[in-house]
Amino acid sequence: MERKKILIISISILILILITATYIYTSTGNSTGSSDDKIGVIVTVGPQEEFVKRVGGDRVNVTVMVPPGADPHTYEPLPNQMKQVQNAQIYFQVGSDIEFELTWMDKLISMNSQMKVVNTSSGIQLIPNTAEGEEGSDPHVWVSPRNAKIMVENIYQTLVQTDPENKDYYTKNRDEYLKELDQLDKNITQTLSGKNNTKIMVYHPAWAYFCRDYNLQQISIEQAGKEPTPQNIAILVDTARNESIKVIFVSPEFSTSNAQVIANEIGGKVVVVDPLSQNYLENMKKVAGVFAGT
After folding, report:
1. Predicted confidence pLDDT, tens digits, the chain (294 residues)
2. What pTM value is reported for the model?
């Protein structure tokens, strides 16, 4: 009888220890809002990855849907990317009629109804598409550092709403990154201030927002997503000669063949500039330098 009583007391003590340990475990940083759990974030293009990581730091895990070198107009996500969407807490959309989102967003949302979807272009003055056959707005909002600041603020607000316990951390990161974007804007303005020829010729018209901010004008070879006809190429060659253009800019995800034809005719060259680089600050500074040198 005494042995049975001791056994019951021992079991009771063991249960109490387990309950106490479980409570301590769950209340000291191993629940959903803990420091060990990262916020699963999906973004559409590479520059957004830098925006999110610079604000979210080690509190976020970011997946980019359109990888480097891929075309946002035609890219189809891979199975492992779809799996990341299923587990994500936030999708930061570009939100400016980018083709990938127009094609895939409804499908991605249907895979994860709990995922918060945020338009990072909210507050940006969009540029309407003016090419014949094109509707909506120019999607390439991120190529403007001034627009990037708005996108970063939208990202910051969402992360704070999602994880309010770490607001101070996000605020510090945001403030530091916004200062760097301000400095980038000043550097680009200074770099381009002495440029005499304000016209640039590009294969794909990805630079409208950049041109708007820094008083440039892009002349596009591609129109409404279509390659130029021989007649259009002849017109573009004449335009390049009349405007003293000697460099044709091409994004890495596009063929350089038509651009090279025009460059050969004008005695110029083709230069690759990347609007989708994941290293945003360094890339935009480089792009400004390349544009300034033409």
Report:
1. 555 555 455 555 555 544 444 443 333 333 333 445 899 999 999 999 999 999 999 999 999 999 988 999 899 999 999 999 999 999 999 999 999 999 999 999 999 999 999 999 999 999 998 765 567 899 999 999 999 999 999 999 999 999 999 999 999 999 999 999 999 999 999 999 988 899 999 999 999 999 999 999 999 999 878 899 999 999 999 999 999 999 999 999 998 999 999 999 999 999 999 999 999 999 999 999 999 988
2. 0.85
Residues 207 and 275 sit within 8 Å (Cβ to Cβ): yes
Domains of the chain: 39-189 (3.40.50.1980), 195-292 (3.40.50.1980)
**Rounded CA separation 108/83 (Å):** 10
How far from each other are the two terminal CA atoms of the chain, in whole angstroms?
A: 97
- Are 250 and 271 within 8 A, CB to CB? yes
Residues 6+ apart with CB under 8 A from 68: 46, 276, 277, 278
Task: Say how far apart CA 41 and CA 110 lie, in whole Å.
Answer: 16
Q: In what order do the strands lie in the sheet with 60-64?
A: 60-64, 39-43, 90-93, 116-119
Does the CA dihedral 206-208-213-215 come out positive or negative? Answer: positive
- Which tokens in the block code for residue 171? 């605020």
Least Cα distance to 222 among 186, 259, 188 occurs for 259
Q: Please state the separation of Cα 280 from the chain's center in Å.
A: 9
Which residues contact residue 91 at a Cβ distance below 8 angstroms, ignoring those fewer than 6 apart?
A: 41, 42, 43, 85, 108, 109, 115, 116, 117, 118
- The three-state secondary structure class of 293 is coil
